[in-house]
UniProtKB/TrEMBL annotation, chain B:
It is found in: Cell membrane. GO terms for molecular function: ABC-type oligopeptide transporter activity; ATP binding; ATP hydrolysis activity. Residues 350-584 form the ABC transporter domain. It comes from Metallococcus carri. This is ABC transporter ATP-binding protein.
């Protein structure tokens, strides 16, 4: 299960600190202004915190002790207390505001920047890359991992301010008394050391918890995606068990994280406290020896107590580091993903039907994946599956070619190759003499439209789904919907073509979605139109109307259509019969009917079936064969 | 049929309901709090040590007394260590109970998600729905890990610090309280603002995830139409909206935090002012006065931590609300559970009695369906796209419930049949069957976990699919890829069909289940199913009328009503009828 997760970054501390430094450097480079302001604010806060202790020590020595000893206090003395403390408090608060607002801006700006960059990669990388990565994982990359990577900038500015605070604080101690300073020199490095140990213990555990969070999320997404199946098969309990198993692993991992934190937090808290006690003990001895005053002991003890809490911010930074590393690594994997899908700079002609040619193309799928159902299986092989094998096509401009073949013959893969959704492993596809990889970015969709078997609709209006943002007028949209036989149901929608279709067109039926997808292709007046069984969810009468409409319009279009139906094949000038990834035969329908048995079996299956039934029925009910028999006459030998 | 957002719950109600849903959270909470008290007691040791050092050590009658102070400090250090041990135990117990509770919450939420009808599931953005059992719970977990403990300790520390202040000087304690009281009101205002701001942030996250998911799920369409730029713009808009909302929330949170910081500083000043006056009147020793400054720190730090973490709490509560909202959304299609009945095995009789159905807020799609299907009958439902055929199938599997009228199986109202019984007896094969990213064998076993490899092979053979299986590189062990995308759409349908067949139902519902399969294979499957389902009732929804030709009974649905009923041979002769028209069109397609 964990095998498919990215390699766990359990590198030694030195390595992870170095990589952490890289994240921090990247952050500063991308958001220099806001992070600089945050650090300056934080430094101000650090200095002012030390000065609070100093002012208190100073006031104790010069105002409070004399007043208590004199048993009276003057207005001047009270004013001194008021304004000296007011100033340090005000500056301290300003420092905090600067730090937090600026750090927040930097953090959210970084998130937004990286979300844009990651999704830009999703849009740029080839489809083959998408096939290799579960969508749940990609969603989590763009969401949770971005946040995890930059979360380190939430505590970091504070920690940098605390560094300033420590330097100034130690300076205060040294100028006050060497022995007290010695306590500080012991305590604060010890805190650092403890924090380092803490982080090295924490890293692998935090990583595992984060990985399991992603796994839980993937299982949930997949299972809900399969919601209808789960219901239809009554598998809710089993799915819940599957989810619960992962959730329980996550729970155990999170508790492990808690155990480590629970061990180190109290230690980190106790060290400065014991330091304070040591200051009091050592300080009393120094007062007894006449080296310092009581006020100075109070000042240093106070300093220890105000430093104790902020110093923990180092722990927060170090605690966040492993998760940031994992998040950042995952982002880097997306951002540096290879699988270039290069574009050339050539343009395709803009008018007239396209001349599309495939020369000896071969394509295989990598059979990878995960055992997401988690049933015990033997070692499952993982290799390549040859889907299209050495196929050559030449689609004459303006012609209509039917691509016919049994289920799993590689028809869809071939259509994907023709519109360059994927590039062939070997061979070349070209349009009007230009090899597809040489066409400039965006050039192919201007000439070519594919209507896939399974349609994808955007969470947009019907119109938006047809135009996809191109400047087509309402009239053109109506026209395209009419060709796709979609006018009827679209008009019945609450807001007509302006109705939003919901996420992935959830509010529409399969056939309705297919018709909108058809309109999407039609409105572009493509020079090459590829229909991959694009009417599978549409009933015959509607389909016939659509095909007729298409034929009327497709004078300037070369058409490649995956089809089983005679009526569709009848529209084609030639037929290609594909079987197991190879072209078994090609020619006109009549030719193939005559010489290709596989083809004949396939396309006449329904007719033969119907005829056989009629024959059986006729045997059973002699004398009742007239009308029905006539209506089906000729089906046995379909000829044009 | 929208899922509740949980917004209607107050914070208090959310916590109460949350604790009720996750009983682990309450378990052993008394001991944990007792340990937490011990660990917070450790924090007031420092002010006491300061007071003792000043009054009994440095300002001792006979001059400074280092020996006494050293002894005192060693004893205090021992106390600090004990408090640390208690803190460790608190941590561990809290993590155990909270993570246990959250795991329960997650699982309950997930289970309920599956209980919601397809109607509800489809009305929501699934990504956002799933987020409620993933990221929302993660949020609560993060809160517990980072802030929850701090918050608990802060509250206890406030109590303990107050007690110590009262011992030293009730008037000065009153001063501290009076200083912090206004803060409580200010913070409440801020809290409201921050809470609302985070609600907006979460909505923006949902929009953003939906937009991003299009770039992932719609990858093929985006490339085929070259709409990368447009998709990028759509994503950027939501990313920017989220950024703005998050920054807005952050600024409000900073306001709340710095208000606490400011009040804390001012309190130190006021305590020093009034404390000095009190000390000059002998109402307070110097040591006690200085100890007070340390106590104010003890007081301000938790208030700051509390305000800080109250923001996190708001966040976590918002997440909690959404999970609870999900869990408390009544399942509109409910399993009758123990009150329900089980159906005995054997071929099923189906009755529709005045059945109407309309989507909530939408138009009615079925207008009074009356239909009787006898046991062992093979029925084909035909009609134009959008005529309501699929709705009939969904009602029969209770993916949705009729808005009026009754659906009966073996004479029993379908709503009274226990899900466990219904699901094992009625199986629907939809047009787009979902495959899990696993091997073919694992997918086939989805409905029949105990089936052996031999049984899987047998089923494939019986359905006449061995030739197809032989084309797969690794047979049953072939991986189907994410959502089965390594297979073609037609192959996915074959898998879905075999999977349903393995589940061995008494009523098999096929909703365009072979629409993407080639004709020869389809005819072969149909033949196979005819013999295999001879002892069962089967209903097929199809637009390839070869299915109708083979059926005992053809039901023609048009615009939400049954317009024709009878065997193919009769219906096809009714000149001018819907069926005759459909069939003519179909026949033309086959013979052109």
């Amino acid at each position: 299960m964990m095998g498919r997760m990215p390699p766990t970054p359990s590198a030694p501390t030195g390595g992870s600190l170095r990589r952490g430094a890289r994240i921090i450097a990247t952050g500063f480079r991308r958001q220099p202004r806001w992070l600089a302001i945050a650090v300056i604010g934080s430094a101000l806060y650090g200095v002012m915190t030390v000065y609070t202790a100093r002012v208190i020590g100073h006031l104790t020595a010069t105002v409070v002790t004399p007043a208590v000893n004199a048993r009276r206090v003057t207005d001047d003395q009270l004013w001194t207390i008021a304004w000296e403390l007011s100033i340090v408090v005000a500056l301290n608060v300003i420092g905090v505001i600067l730090r937090r607002v600026a750090a927040g801006l930097a953090f959210f700006n970084l998130n937004a920047t990286y979300r844009r960059e990651v999704t830009r990669q999703y849009l740029r990388l080839p489809l083959a890359w998408h096939h290799r990565h579960p969508s749940g994982q990609l969603l989590s990359n763009a969401n949770a991992d971005v946040e995890a990577a930059w979360n380190i900038f939430q505590p970091l500015p504070m920690a940098l301010g605390v560094l300033v605070m420590l330097v100034v604080g130690l300076w205060e101690m040294f100028t006050t008394d060497l022995w007290l300073a010695l306590v500080g020199v012991l305590v604060f490095p010890l805190l650092f050391a403890v924090n380092l140990v803490f982080q090295s213990r924490m890293a692998p555990r935090a990583t595992r918890a984060q990985e399991l969070r992603a796994v839980v999320s993937e299982v949930a997404h997949e299972s809900i995606e399969a919601g209808m199946l789960v219901k239809a098969m009554g598998r809710e309990e089993r799915e819940t068990e599957r989810f619960a198993a992962r959730t329980n692993e996550l729970r155990a991992a999170a508790i492990e994280v808690g155990r480590v934190r629970g061990t180190f937090d109290p230690i980190v808290e106790a060290i400065p406290t014991i330091g304070t006690l040591a200051v009091l003990a050592v300080g009393t001895a120094q007062v007894a020896a006449g080296r310092i005053t009581a006020a100075q002991v109070v000042q240093i003890a106070y300093l220890f107590s105000v430093l104790a809490f902020p110093v923990r911010s180092f722990g927060w930074v170090l605690g966040q580091l492993p998760q940031s590393l994992v998040g950042f690594d995952r982002l880097q994997r997306v951002l540096t993903a290879r699988g270039e899908f290069g574009y050339g700079n050539r343009s395709l002609p803009t008018a007239g039907p396209a001349h599309a040619v495939a020369e000896r193309v071969t394509f295989s799928y990598a059979l990878t994946g995960q055992d997401s159902l988690g049933y015990a299986e033997a070692e499952t092989p993982s290799e390549h599956f040859l889907a299209v094998d050495d196929v050559s096509l030449d689609l004459t401009p303006g012609s209509t070619t039917a691509l016919v073949g049994p289920t799993g013959a590689g028809k869809s893969t071939l259509t994907d190759l023709m519109v360059r959704l994927v590039d062939p492993d070997a061979g070349e596809v070209s349009i009007d003499g230009t090899a597809l990889p040489q066409v400039r970015r965006g050039g192919i969709p201007q000439s070519v439209a594919l209507v896939p078997q399974q349609t994808f609709l955007f969470d947009d209006t019907v119109e938006g789904n047809v135009t996809l943002g191109e400047p087509h007028g309402a009239e053109q949209v109506r026209d395209a919907l009419a060709v796709a036989q979609a006018t009827g149901f679209v008009d019945a929608l609450p807001e007509g073509a302006q109705t939003r279709v919901g996420e992935r067109g959830a509010s529409l039926s399969g056939g309705q979605r297919q018709r909108i997808a058809l309109a999407r292709a039609v409105i572009r007046r493509p020079r090459l139109l590829v229909l991959d069984d694009a009417t599978s969810a549409i009933d015959p009468a509607v389909e016939t109307a659509i095909l007729t409409g298409l034929r009327e319009r497709s004078a300037g279009t070369t058409v490649l259509v995956v089809a089983y139906r005679m009526s569709t094949i009848a529209l084609a000038d030639s037929v290609i019969f594909l079987d197991r990834g190879r072209i078994a035969d090609r020619g006109t329908h009549a030719e193939l009917m005559q010489r290709c048995e596989g083809y004949r079996t396939l396309v006449t299956a329904y007719a033969r079936e119907a005829a056989e039934r009629e024959a059986i029925a006729a045997d059973e009910e002699p004398g009742d064969q007239g009308a029905v028999g006539d209506s089906l006459a000729g089906e046995e030998e379909p000829a044009r | 049929m929208s899922v509740r957002t949980g917004q209607e719950l107050s914070t208090w109600q959310t916590l109460r309901r949350g604790f009720a849903l996750s009983p682990e959270l309450r378990r052993g909470v008394g001991v944990t709090i007792a340990l937490a008290v011990v660990s917070t007691l450790g924090r007031i040791l420092v002010p006491i040590a300061v007071q003792q050092t000043i009054d009994r050590g440095i300002l001792a009658a006979g001059g400074p007394d280092p020996r006494l102070v050293t002894t005192l400090m060693l004893v205090t250090a021992l106390g600090v260590v004990l408090a640390g041990c208690a803190a460790y135990l608190v941590n561990l117990r809290l993590f155990r109970s909270s993570e246990g509770g959250l795991a329960t919450l997650r699982i309950t939420g997930f289970r309920h998600l599956h209980d919601l009808s397809m109607l509800t599931q489809n009305a929501e953005r699934r990504g956002a729905l799933v987020a409620r059992v993933t990221t929302d719970v993660d949020q609560i977990s993060q809160f517990v890990q980072f802030s929850g403990l701090m918050l608990l300790m802060a509250v206890l520390q406030l109590l303990v610090a107050s007690a110590l202040m009262l011992v030293y000087s009730p008037p000065l304690a009153l001063v501290v309280w009076l200083c912090f009281l206004p803060l409580a009101f200010v913070l409440r205002t801020f809290q409201g603002m921050v809470g609302r701001a985070y609600t907006v942030v979460r909505e923006r996250v949902g929009d953003m995830l939906a937009a991003i998911s299009e770039s992932v799920v719609g990858a093929a369409t985006i490339r085929a139409y070259g709409v990368q730029d447009r998709t990028a713009e759509r994503i950027d808009r939501t990313v920017e909206a989220h950024r703005r909302a998050a920054v807005g929330a952050q600024i409000r949170a900073v306001g709340a935090f710095t208000a606490g910081q400011f009040v804390a500083g001012m309190t130190t000043m006021i305590v020093l002012l009034i404390g000095t006056v009190l000390a000059t009147h002998g109402r307070l020793t110097l040591g006690e006065l200085l100890a007070f400054l340390f106590i104010v720190n003890l007081f301000t730090q938790p208030v700051q931590t509390a305000t800080e973490n109250l923001n996190e709490l708001q966040n976590a509560v918002a997440g909690w609300r959404r999970v609870i909202g999900l869990i408390d959304t009544p399942a509109d299609v409910r399993d009758p559970g123990d009150e329900g009945v089980d159906l005995p095995r054997g071929p099923i009789t189906v009755d529709f009695d005045g059945v109407r159905f309309g989507y909530p807020g939408g138009v009615e799609v079925l207008h009074g369906i009356d239909l009787h299907i006898g046991p062992r009958q093979r029925v084909a439902i035909v009609g134009e796209t959008g005529s309501g055929k699929t709705t009939l199938a969904k009602l029969l599997t209770r993916l949705m419930d009729a808005s009026d009228g009754e659906v009966r199986l073996d004479g029993v109202d379908i709503r009274r049949i226990r899900f466990s019984s219904l699901r094992s007896r009625v199986v629907l094969v939809p047009q787009e069957g979902f495959l899990f990213d696993d091997t073919l064998a694992a997918n086939l076993r989805f409905g029949a976990p105990e089936a052996t490899d031999d049984e899987l092979h047998l089923a494939i053979t019986e359905l006449g699919l061995d030739a197809w299986l032989a084309t797969l590189p690794h047979g049953l062990q072939t991986r189907v890829g994410q959502r089965g995308e390594s297979l073609s759409a037609g192959e996915r349908q074959l898998v879905a069909l075999a999977r349903a067949y393995l589940a061995d139902p008494d009523l098999l519902l096929l909703d365009e289940a072979t629409s993407a399969v080639d004709p020869a294979t389809e005819v072969r499957i149909q033949r196979a199913l005819e013999s295999l389902t001879s002892g069962r009732t089967s209903i097929a929804i199809a637009h390839r009328l070869s299915t109708a030709e083979a059926a005992d009974l053809v039901v023609v649905v048009d615009r939400g009503q049954i317009v024709q009923l009878g065997p193919h041979r009769e219906l096809v002769q009714a000149t001018g009828s819907v069926y005759a028209r459909l069939h003519a069109s179909w026949a033309t397609q086959q013979t052109h």
